[in-house]
Amino acid sequence: MRLNRAIAIAVLAALPMAVLEVWSLGMVLTEFSRGGADTRALVFLALVQGGILIAIALGVMGAVWRRPGLSVLGAGLIFLEGVPLIFSFAWLAVLVSGLFLLAARDTAPIRGASLVGARVIGSLAALWALAGVPSLIRAQPLFWVFLEVALCGVALVGWWPARDVA
How far is CA 147 from CA 23, 95, 111, 123, 128, in A? Predict the structure, then answer.
């Protein structure tokens, strides 16, 4: 199997997020083993970080196995996992989601449920970006600008016409 563009996009997109999540999960587990973390907080963080790792695995496997549906599913999961990260690394989760959609488009034509999923993700990203414009105008932190740019990118990738249609 040769390394193609979709695999490169998926792996390079997933790498920073995966490293960040594994490091963060290790820190939480270390804190919990010392008795310094609440059990409810640990469960919440493990679910969020575990969900992101599962989404990353789905996105990369979809590119490797040339199954755009898996990449779209990974993109959707990581997009939803960006919501709890809204004040920290949501922009990175949204960016990875958009790159997984781009990888899905590069593996094979997206049709059926995968196309609907990509359009739903694109629509949610556009609505989230529009809702964030008033906050952006009030001079929010730099990560909010990154989030808005990433959301606009996901909206564009989610609604970009397929190669065979254009």
Answer: 22, 8, 28, 15, 10
CA 77 distance to own-chain centroid: 7
pTM for the complete prediction?
A: 0.87
Q: How many CA atoms lie within 13 A of 162 on its CB side?
A: 16
- Closest listed residue to residue 163, CA positions, set 97, 115, 92, 91: 115
Instruction: Quote the distance between the C-alpha of residue 165 and its chain's center.
Output: 26
List the chain domain ranges.
Answer: 5-159
Q: Using CB atoms within 10 A of its CB, is residue 80 exposed (0-12), middle (13-18) or buried (19+)?
A: middle
Model pLDDT for residues 83-109, shown as the tens digit of each residue: 877 777 888 999 999 999 999 988 888
Greater model confidence, 139 or 49: 49
3 pLDDT band, cuts 50/70/90, is low
